[in-house]
Amino acid sequence: MSTKNIILVGAPMDSGKRRQGCRMGPDAYRVAGLADALTALGHQVADHGDVAPDTVDIPEHDHLVKLPECIGWTQALNRAAKVAAGQGMPIFMGGDHALSMGTVSGMAEHAKAKGRPLFVLWLDAHSDFHTPQSTSSGNLHGSPVAYFTGQSGFDAFPALAAVVPTDQVGMIGLRSVDPEEHAALQSHDTMLADMRTIDEHGIKAPLVAFLDKVRAANGILHVSLDVDFLDPSVAPAVGTTVPGGATEREGHLVMELLHDSGLVCSLDLVELNPFLDDRGRTAMLMVDLTASLLGRRVFDRPTRSF
After folding, report:
1. Which helix (H) or strand (E) holds 226?
2. What confidence score (pLDDT) does residue 143 get?
3. C-alpha angle with apex 221: 220 to 227, nearest 5 degrees?
4. pLDDT confidence of residue 299
5. H-helix or E-strand containing 34?
6. CA 108, 109, 111 angle in degrees (round to 5)?
7. Which among 87, 108, 82, 81 has a CA at the least distance from the CA of 10?
8. Rounded to an integer, what is the distance from CA 70 to the centroid of its chain?
9. Contacts of 198 (CB under 8 A, 6+ apart)
10. What b/e readout covers 211-226, taking b as 16+ CB neighbours within 10 angstroms?
11. Most exposed residue of 139, 184, 218, 219, measured as fewest CB within 10 angstroms of its CB?
12. CB-count exposure of residue 116 (10 Å: 0-12, 13-18, 19+)
């Protein structure tokens, strides 16, 4: 197994939605032993601490939740992603999913500088394809994919130096997509694999097809893993639970296949709310999944006592 320089970047962003708690995510991953798990696999691991959002001098928005803070996080995480990507493989420990506005846009700039396309694998119950105009909740954690793929309506946010085309995005695990998002996605060729597709064909088939596409384009892959990709029975620590998600075993299979591909350049771990967890169960599962992505095999998994 090839070893990597892993850069841990804390992103305690808790401004993409009204329900609080995701700001505790980075420390929960640290306490759950993320660095130790990856070091045990032979990787070099450096923790760069937590990013802080830029100060943005614009007024609060009447509808969009904490808009200035979300913009500040996007700017700061964009810079942090570019710095970390130049040193190794960044793992962004979130934080709510709005952090991906910054991490993915930064990784897209990094890929562009290397002359390679960036692909994004979105492991999530939700498509997060709302624009500021279409969101009824005003929660911007439902908008990152629309932002980094260059959809209209994000004039208040930093202009994108590198856009990720929608045909370079693959979504697996979908089961809660708003009508506005569904209608918008119909005009794009994003790879969509909802839970019915997974039930009928297994989780391997859509993933392998997407990885083949990345490889054929000589692309590099950013993976964004939302806790709610998993079924809440195995991962309860998320404020956006949707029944019928991926099983623990399916999650590990996805991560093992991603490791085998050799294509992954960066990773988001998002929407962990430790306040809602059961004795650290979800945090430890996310650490175990990350270890599978970085080379731990199924028969090497540790025994857990809860």
Report:
1. strand 220-226
2. 96
3. 170
4. 67
5. helix 34-40
6. 65
7. 81
8. 16
9. 172, 173, 206, 246, 250
10. beebeeeebbbbbbbb
11. 218
12. middle
CA neighbours closer than 13 Å in the CB half-sphere of residue 223: 30
Residue that is written with structure tokens 């979300």 in the block: 70
Give the C-alpha separation, 198 to 125, whole Å: 13
Contacts of 144 (CB under 8 A, 6+ apart): 97, 98, 99, 100, 101, 104, 128
Alpha carbon distance 232, 236 (integer Å): 5
pLDDT along the chain (306 residues), means of 10: 93 88 97 98 98 92 88 98 98 97 98 98 97 93 96 96 98 96 95 96 97 98 98 94 95 98 98 96 98 88 70
Write down the residue that tokens 């490889």 correspond to: 215
Domain 5-300, CATH class in plain words: alpha beta
The pLDDT value given to residue 305: 66
Residue tagged 């970047």 (tokens): 9
Contact indicator for 280, 31 with CB cutoff of 8 Å: yes
| Terminal alpha carbon distance of the chain | 31
Q: In 3D, which of 229, 264, 263 has the Cα closest to residue 247? A: 229
Picking from 160, 134, 145, 149, the residue whose alpha carbon sits closest to that of residue 224 is 145
Q: Tell me, what's the pLDDT at 306?
A: 60
Integer-rounded Cα radius of gyration of the chain: 17
3-state SS, 91-124, equals EEEECCHHHHHHHHHHHHHHHHHCCCCEEEEEEC
Sorted by where each begins, the domain ranges of the chain are 5-300
